[in-house]
Amino acid sequence: MKNKDILIIGCGAIAHEINEIIKLNNWNNVSLQCLNADLHNTPKRLPTKIKETIESNLKEYSKIFLAYADCGTGGLIDSMLKNYDIERLEGAHCYEFYAGSRLFKDLSDREIGTFYLTDFLVKNFKRLIIDGLGISKHPSLKDEYFKNYKNIVYLAQKHDNDLELKAKDCANYLNLEYSVHYTGLGNFEDQLNKAMK
């Protein structure tokens, strides 16, 4: 029998922010279960992993919400969700739901060759980008992967001088121009608030 609790299934890359929003809103009936953020390097695996997590929790919760955007799956997450009464975050990826669709569109229109960073990506740049994409073992891959990029935009969830310095280091490492936009958690929180109602 289902209880009245709500489960958020989310990406490990946004776990800290989701937990912060849960605490700020005193959502005592909301639980969070996150999948490994490394799955973003193999997005075709995401729908299967998400489905497994949904199936293992479906009978336990009155509502499940998916804290994922499309995340590079080319609509595969949405196709899988058609079999369930489960909504997901709006947008193509976390950059869009952090920034909001309007700001993200403006940034994309200004320069399509933009590589985006979030707080999580800045903190885990070496593990996910340098090591995760094989650049540490094959340095020539850096130029191959990033040859069409012109700049880095750091979408910062909070003001943090240390993270901003690290983000600048990421831009320097990739030889890209750097800028920062402070997004906060407002748009993300609005989406979660709608889902909790």
Task: Report what the structure shows.
The chain has 197 residues and is an alpha/beta fold. The chain has two domains: 84 residues; 83 residues, no CATH class. A four-stranded parallel beta sheet has the order 2-1-3-4, with helices on both faces. A three-stranded parallel beta sheet has the order 5-6-7. The radius of gyration is 17 Å and the shape is globular. The relative contact order is 0.15. The mean pLDDT is 92.
Instruction: Provide the spatial order of strands within the biggest beta sheet.
Output: 2-1-3-4
What is the SS-derived class? alpha/beta
Helicity level, as a percent range?
40-55%
**Low-pLDDT residue spans:** none
Topology:
Elements: E1 6-11, H1 15-24, E2 30-35, H2 46-57, E3 63-67, H3 76-81, E4 87-88, H4 94-99, H5 101-110, E5 114-117, H6 119-123, H7 125-131, H8 140-146, E6 151-156, H9 161-174, E7 177-182, H10 186-196
Parallel strand pairs: 1-2, 1-3, 3-4, 5-6, 6-7
